[in-house]
Batch of 4 targets.
Target 1
Amino acid sequence: MERIKRGDTVEVVAGRDAAAARREGRKVQGTVHRVIRGYKIDRNFRKSGRDPSKDRVVVQGVNLIIKHQRRTGDVRTQFGRIEMEAPVHISNVMLVCPSCKEATRIGFRESADGAKVRYCKHCDEVID
């Protein structure tokens, strides 16, 4: 079970976007579009195991970049200057608890039916 999943609301706590928001006195929050898991690569360029230090997330409205896309032969492809979200390292975001509406750390415990669930360490409420 992972700490941050697709669809979670997260707050950016470190990085370029967080520093700019801190200067303006606001917080940067967004929804997770995609979670990218990191893997160790052996010398034959095969995945040889998980590497949590390479985990990244794509958050809505955070870390916006401009990609210059060349026109291709296919008529349906978008071309020109495309603004898109780039991945952010997973350690730079914190989950926002749905019940207390604060960025918080996550813990794991077993529910009554024996399933592993996430809970908020701030308000002790179950998230899943």
Target 2
Amino acid sequence: MRAVVQRVSHAKVTVEAQVVGEIGSGLVVLLGIARDDIQRDAEYLVDKIAALRIFDDGEGKMNLSLTDTEGALLVVSQFTLYGDVRRGLRPSWIDAAQPEVAEPLYEFFVAGCKSKVAQVATGSFRRTMRVELSNDGPVTILLDSRKLF
């Protein structure tokens, strides 16, 4: 499971001209699910993201987490994080989970986030989305659960 985590001042997701998810200050998580990911991968990333100390404290140092700041979280599924372009220019999606595997893990991840973060918004799984955000910092962190287990 891969996550691109961005600290934002605000963000929103639109599907067919309808805003389906929107937050103020917090984090946007672009979440990719691999074909062999399991719930343990999701649990690891939920815990890590909620506790990442990437928000400024009173002295301007990155010492506070999303839960410390009571910030919001916007989770967007993005299978393209598993696009492999090592051989050629057209991405291969062989490592990305099929939708019937990915969607339950995505929902499990979102439920885990909701147990730790007060405000969680989402995009729409398996839909074309427009994601707009204002990256604060900019701060962008890449997380990959595969290197741990």
Target 3
Amino acid sequence: MPTTRLPSAFAELEPFAEKWCLPTEAERWNMRMATSMLVMREFYEAFSPRLEEAIDYCDKFPLADVPDDALNLLHLIYSMVMVSMAVEVFGQQKPTDSADAVIDRIGEPVP
């Protein structure tokens, strides 16, 4: 039986969970860079209609005590933000006119 990562109310997004429930910004960025635009658009189109509902769901929990399934949903939201820039703004994985610029964070907000 497959493992579920997301709250049952978001079961239709489960096919995206393994790829996009990533806990760090660096992991999300690397996944964006390694994923085709076609695959990112599929994720974007599936999640966009449910994004506000997902945010509302996660907002029910204090950040210090988020259940695992809601934390995975929060990570999915963060990935959606990362993917949406590629889909809505750049039309490609890499930001336009960025040459080989890289930013490595040494810390980030958690969760």
Target 4
Amino acid sequence: MEYRCEATRVAGFVQQLAVAYIARGYFLYVMGEIPERKDPRVVDERLIAKYGLGVGKATRARRKAAGFANVQYLRYQRTFILVATPGTHSVFEQEGQAIRDAREVPIKFGGYAISYRGGHPHVRIDQENYLELSALFRHLAVHRTKDWFEGRFRKLPFEPYAPVRGQLHCILREVNRRRRLANYELISATCIRVRRRLVRPFEGVASVSHAADDLATMPGVRRPCDSTSDRTNSETRRSSTTADISCGENASA
């Protein structure tokens, strides 16, 4: 059967990973980068065959009932991740010490930190990006107009998952605290988006030049579209492999 694994946008990758996989028990993961000399789609085919991923929901349900782990594979450009449920599977033998648990070590991708807390997926801005953004907005609090700030908050390249909204409101409160002391007009909280855009993770074919065209460019926030240079992924490049609403075609119980 066809196995769709190539996400065409950062938002689609994060949505598929958090809502379709982690929310359904795929806590264990290994993440890596595909070298420039390799064709990502050839690597996709090899990994799908190697770990027997092209199976249906019924097969995955039988595996789960028998105590075997299920595995999913997802890729954006040259960044890939294998996620697995607890159990027995060759992926644990192959990847060994590179395996991490999203309940303990968040998955860092595209400026986000994705984990599992309190019985549900937890998607937030990763700490490095959050601190950079917070420092920038605090610095500019009394140097920019109300309209400027509201426009920048609306254009931030982070989908408003609940933890993300909480982080942005923290930044907004600090900005308004400084503006209040300086007798400046306060920023309205309505500039922070409250509804997340639902995307089809595997829709269309993206090129490196426009795959993240939904992300705004602004100072202080690294554009999460070039996975080969994203420092937030550097800690997870240990793989021994060579290579809320679900829209996940590959997800199963």
